[in-house]
Specification:
The complex is a heterodimer of chains A (429) and B (261).
Chain A (H helix, E strand, L loop, with lengths): L28 H13 L6 H17 L6 H26 L12 H16 L8 H25 L4 H22 L5 E3 L3 H8 L1 E2 L2 H28 L7 H24 L3 E2 H19 L1 H11 L1 H6 L4 H27 L1 E3 L7 H11 L13 H18 L4 H31 L1
Antiparallel strand pairs in A: 1-4, 2-3
Helix pairs in contact in A: 2-15, 3-9, 3-10, 3-13, 3-14, 3-15, 4-5, 4-6, 4-13, 5-6, 5-13, 7-13, 8-9, 10-11, 11-13, 14-15, 14-16
Chain B lengths: L11 E10 L2 E11 L4 E5 L6 H8 L7 E6 L2 E2 L5 H7 L1 E4 L11 H5 L6 E2 L3 E2 L1 H14 L17 H12 L6 E5 L7 H16 L3 E5 L3 H7 L2 E6 L2 E7 L5 H10 L13
Parallel strand pairs in B: 3-10, 3-11, 6-9, 9-10
Antiparallel strand pairs in B: 1-2, 1-4, 4-5, 7-8, 11-12
Helix pairs in contact in B: 5-6
Classes of the chains: A mainly alpha (429), B alpha/beta (261).
Bound molecules: adenosine-5'-triphosphate and magnesium ion.
The site of magnesium ion has 2 residues of chain B, from helix 1.
Chain lengths: 429, 261
């Protein structure tokens, strides 16, 4: 233990011999499974509901609709879910800092994305002002991040609840979208000319090998990370998950990714936007799970008072989180206008806001704050898009689609509430 | 400065400290001292000024007058950060743990160890957390990776106490640590208090439960209506004497205040 950074005298402990008091947690597979099952019963559901949800979706739409489980529909799904997933990453950060019983929310996120996307489209118009694609992207991201900052300052410094602030933002930014699209253009419609910007949501890696290489990189990275973690924990005499479980998890990730590549390659290949999404998911997961900033976000969401006493500036964390959300709204806006190859007066309207929030909740992020992972954005967006897509293929009426989507959202919130109650009850037992 | 009756020189010494909130004289010219390795109990009726004295010591509500000495030197403490820098830690009754985080994350909250300049060093933290808990013989925790929401009241108290001694602290102040606990868990926390003193920490324990106090305290300071009315050596007193001091100890006349009886 030459790299022991602690200063306190540690009792001389031999390799593998644990000091008194702490049993090495679940080194055996059956112990581990039993332990996980107990956690599930106690309300720590993890990704269990989402896996069950996906199984149900595949079973139901797969039997009712022939075109649902096709390679083409799979790549369509990947394209359709992207804007929701990007925006949902930002919303997850917002939900994480929910203050006790009061939910923090951003109701303006869709129209902020619409505003950012519209500004991007206007800036790249070849005639005027003809900005290069990268400059337009930077301008869009700065704008939406600053919008997030303004919302945050109103919420933290003036004490206006996030619900009210962003409800006002909802109106303001939808107004800005209308103003930009109607007053600065003739028809309320501007198309994107720049090929790079169009490619973001429309390009596929049509060469089969690209998908394989990407999948191998991800699986390899995941495996190295997991095995390294186990190795260094063992070296310090700390408990680890049993090796067969770790290997099974790596194998599971590999099988899923390779299956996705095989299916996508039968159609147009892996979409570029899916790769971009993976990069953002990995980055924000790293921030949330591995950095001090991320830890403090969870602390603020778990107990603002504990965070405050630990010397964390709760206001600064909240402000930073709203800026992250603003930034991701910009990214989502870019992806959205790229997918439509244009912006128009009804960009980012409709159900986008509800789908984004629903995705986060369905993905397992708690409305009560402090609980949930960033990948929830991916799972949730996949579920909500698959339901929408399946119902559209079946030609259901939009009234019926609303009802189903609403029920799914309610189900997700119910699961959250019930598991939250279980978690707190266990503490009082 | 020497203390009044034997023992080492005090770790913390307050001399004639007062604090008023508007017209309310919460504490008035209180003398209070704690030595290293001793458990000093602070008792008194509701509103006697116990919490105010503690908040004055850690600088949440700085005293209006009086001097505070720590480790023999006069100090001015303007806030919890100053107090923590000196080595004074308070475990408040509500504990203020983040329920959604595990034991390790809570013990290091706000002071996470970092490796590679950016990444939280979970292994170093977990290792150190186990060490500290083991040094306090906290054996009822199954894993330091347990989420705090799942812990019992006594376990939470243990985590909060362990957290308070991680950072070169010398004086640990516990505000009603056993108030919400059952018999077995109270026992655990009292054992913890004794172990802290054995390890050389100065310990202040506020409690309304004289039975608990007589189990762990070396000395007992009694506040009544904001004044210090008595200091007892536990060995030379009994519960009845302490109760009398709490309810009817002699008060000095406070200028500008009615003699409140
Ligand atoms: N922030 C404050 N503002 C005004 N008055 C206060 C404040 N804090 C305490 N007081 C008053 O000071 C007096 C002492 O209160 P304190 O909280 O120190 O008592 P205590 O001994 O801790 O009582 P308890 O056993 O109920 O906790 C009380 O009369 C209380 O009302
Ligand atoms: Mg009090």
């Amino acid at each position: 233990m030459s790299d022991d950074t602690t200063t306190a005298p540690s009792p001389p402990s031999e390799e593998g011999v644990r000091t008194a008091g702490f049993e090495t947690p679940h080194e055996g597979v059956s112990d581990y499974v039993a332990e996980r099952w107990r956690a599930v019963q106690a309300g720590e559901l993890g990704s269990l509901p989402i896996i069950l949800g996906l199984v149900v979706i595949v079973a139901v739409f797969g039997t009712l609709e022939d075109n649902f489980l096709t390679a083409q529909n799979f790549t369509n799904l990947l394209l359709q879910m992207a804007p929701i997933a990007f925006l949902s990453i930002g919303i997850i950060f917002i939900l994480l800092i929910a203050d006790g019983e009061v939910v923090t929310i951003d109701l303006s996120v869709a129209f902020v994305a619409g505003t950012g996307g519209t500004v991007l489209v206007l800036l790249q118009r070849p005639d005027d002002p003809g900005w290069p694609w990268w400059a337009a992207i930077i301008a869009c991201l700065i704008l939406t991040t600053v919008i997030g900052l303004v919302h945050a300052l109103i919420i933290t410094k003036l004490g206006v609840p996030s619900f009210v602030t962003t409800l006002a933002g909802f109106l303001v930014w939808s107004g800005v979208v209308l103003w930009l699209t109607l007053d600065f253009t003739d028809a309320g419609f501007v198309s994107i000319q720049d090929q790079t910007l169009i490619d973001i949501s429309n390009k596929f890696f049509s060469d089969d090998w690209v998908g394989w290489v990407l999948a191998l990189i991800v699986v390899g990275g995941y495996a190295v990370f997991q095995l390294n973690d186990v190795r260094s924990r063992r070296a310090r005499g700390l408990g680890t998950r049993p090796m067969p479980i770790v290997l099974a998890q790596i194998a599971g990730v590999a099988v899923l990714l390779f299956a996705a590549v095989i299916v996508a390659n039968r159609d147009r290949g892996i979409p570029l936007v899916t790769v971009i999404l993976a990069v953002f998911l990995a980055f924000w997961t790293f921030v949330a799970a591995k950095t001090r900033f991320g830890r403090h976000i969870y602390a603020v969401g778990g107990s603002p008072e504990a965070a405050r006493r630990a010397g964390i500036s709760v206001d600064n964390i909240r402000i930073a989180v709203f800026m992250v959300n603003g930034f991701m709204a910009g990214v989502g806006g870019i992806v959205l206008v790229s997918r439509l190859r244009s912006t128009s007066s009804n960009i980012a309207g409709g159900n986008l806001l509800l789908e984004v929030i629903a995705a986060a909740v369905i993905g397992g992020v708690s409305l009560f704050g402090g609980s949930g992972r960033i990948v929830a954005a991916f799972y949730g967006a996949l579920v909500i898009t698959a339901i929408k897509n399946g119902m559209e293929l079946m030609g259901l009426s939009s009234g019926f689609k609303f009802i189903i989507t609403g029920i799914v959202l309610l189900l997700a919130v119910l699961i959250d509430s019930v598991s939250k109650r279980r978690r707190t009850m266990r503490g009082l037992a | 400065m020497t203390s009044d009756d034997g023992g080492g020189s005090p770790l913390l010494q307050c001399q004639g400290v007062s604090k008023s909130f508007g017209a309310v004289q919460a504490i008035y010219k209180v003398d209070f001292d704690v030595r290293a390795g001793e458990v000093m109990a602070l008792v008194g009726d509701n509103g006697a000024g116990k919490s105010t004295l503690i908040k004055g010591i850690v600088g949440i509500y700085p005293f209006d007058e009086g001097e505070v000495y720590f480790d023999g030197a006069q100090v001015r403490i303007h806030g919890p950060k100053d107090a923590a820098d000196l080595g004074i830690e308070v475990v408040y009754q509500d504990l203020a743990l983040a329920d959604n985080l595990d034991v390790v994350a809570n013990m290091f909250l706000g002071r996470e160890e970092i490796s590679n300049g950016l990444v939280i060093d979970e292994l170093a933290m977990e290792h150190r957390a186990q060490e500290v808990l083991e040094s306090l013989s906290v054996t009822t925790l199954k894993s330091v990776r347990q989420v705090v929401a799942g812990l019992s009241g006594g376990q939470r108290q243990a985590v909060a106490v362990a957290k308070s001694i991680m950072w070169d602290s010398k004086l640990v102040i516990l505000d009603e640590p056993t108030a919400a606990l059952g018999v077995a868990q109270t026992r655990q926390v009292l054992d913890l208090v004794l172990r802290l003193a054995e390890q050389g920490f100065g310990v202040v324990i506020i409690s309304h439960n004289l039975h608990d106090i007589f189990e762990v305290a070396d000395r007992i300071t009694v506040l009544r209506l904001g004044q210090r009315v008595a200091v007892f050596d536990k060995a030379a007193t009994n519960q009845q004497e302490v109760v009398e001091a709490i309810t009817a100890g002699d008060l000095a006349h406070v200028p500008g205040m009615e003699a409140a009886i």
